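seq as requested:
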Amino acid sequence: MTDNAVFEHDQITEETGKNGMSGSNVIAMEHIKKQHGATVSFHSIRYRVEQKSESICRRTTVHKEILVDLNGIMRPGLNAILGPTGSGKSSFLDVLAARKDPAGLSGEVLINGALQPPNFKCLSGYVVQDDIVMGTLTVRENLCFSAALRLSSQISPREKEARVNHLISELALNKVADAKVGTQLIRGISGGERKRTSIGMELIIDPSVLFLDEPTTGLDASTAYSVLLLLKRSVYSKYNILNTNISYLNGVFSNDIVGYACEAHNNPADFFLDIINGSSAAVNMTKIQNNGDFEFEVAAVSQQSIEDQLVEKYKNCSYARSLKAELERITRAKDNNIKAKCHTITYTSSFFHQLRWVLWRTFWNLMLNPQTSVAQLAVTTLMAAIVGAIFYGVKDDQSGIQNRFGVLFFITTNQCFSTLSAAELFITERKLFIHEYTSGYYRVSVYFLSKILSDIITQRTVPTILFTCVVYFMIGLKPTVAAFFIFMLTVILVSCAAVSMTMAISADQSVVAVANIFMTISFIFMMIFSGLLVNLKSIMDWLSWLKYLSIPRYGLEALEINEFVGLKFCGNVSAVMSSPAADILMYNCMYCVGCTGEQHLTFQGIDYSSWGLWHNHIALTLMTLIFLIIAYIKLRFIPKFS
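struct tokens:
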């Protein structure tokens, strides 16, 4: 079984200490400056969740009990939470760490007999089961990021750097300090080194309590042993740790509870788990060693489960009675006038300090990720070359009208659908964001603003400028400076509006595929009302209002006005009249699409005045702002409890 662990540390000014224990969920607490170590006690902890089941006839809600009346004390030292899979160990750990949803939770967790402070999540450390560190950064850069945002602003940069270097040495990460952690595309450090990096990012602040959720998950036996041995050795070398005595536990199980004795060369933690799980081998071998009647014991086990036996025997043992008495003493000593406060998030640095560091990490992550940097520019250049080759050198005739209209429509729709990649912006880093936000790294607004700026600049603006420079001159659009920059501005605004809508849709989604479905449907409806597939003037009144929600419509109108105003497509009228199809050509020129760009725009129902041009840019800007506000609100209020 893998480990969940809790470590309690000294106040922020103390040296960092570590401890660990393999074999179960683990809780370790360090000695602090006071004469006695911090003690965590939990009183009548209950936690239940609502499970909704849908049937053909009706929808019902069932309450499932996860934790039932848990009471205990965790003294300074190493503490383990043992139990089979699905027994609620991680839920219990989250309750102790104040990271569990308060809905359905009752009971109290006390630190040295006092209620947990409302910002306990920021004062404590929490290493999640999955190592959520930025893989494109080095070990040192990740630790420096944590130190910059979580240590007090009164600590100088030199002191923070010294603390990082000391922690790297303590965690035996010197050889890989300047190596990238690694991603799916970048080869990085080993699993054990990655786990130690995750632990180091929490230990950097010397937290009062450090929780580790299954720190050996995904590691082989040797690596898991080395990680926990390193933590254990470091703690015992610095602190007076009061550890649970294994021989005492053996005495409790063998004498007080049911009479289970662990063999001399058996791992006590594994043996206890076998008993809790009701392993027949452990139960029967114990009974045989105690000269018990095998058949009688099998019958007894069938009449009453091992779990029920353990619970019943535990309630009546001397250990439970003494524990209950001590819990009552702690409860009586608690100040009952102090009420529990709501959970809050506190920060040690200013808004702009956080923005600078989060923006640096976000930009650096994009630059070092070839999938989002080099590949994006390569695909954009290739797409621009293909489009430019297809529509190369448009002419000022009737084919030129069709080609111009077609390429402008393609560019606007392509800008919309190319923003589907932004759906991963918040979804792929959801766990990282929630963990860092609840730990007090940065504000939601800081994370949101850094993501917006980095994506709009690196993924939208730069590729759009490159795309425009290639396409505009290959196609041979209006050769004026003003027209070129208006074209570029329009395409950038279309991209920004589309990506902001993508963010608004995907901000509260947890699956990229679901977000992509919603966005694709939205863009398809917008494309219908863009002005090419259907004449907007012919749409029924009760549906015509949908055109005001179409991002491609505003972009296409602006690009058409910018390109068609001032152009003439009929050429030499005398040459047209002398052609065999003079009547048909003149009809097409004069009555349908017109000889001038203005006539074409009038036929499309487009106002080509100055306001007609710039109101499209204003509309795109407003849509961008509205969608960004929606995305921020969603990100601000997504559930952040486990």
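The CA atoms of residues 47 and 575 lie 87 Å apart.
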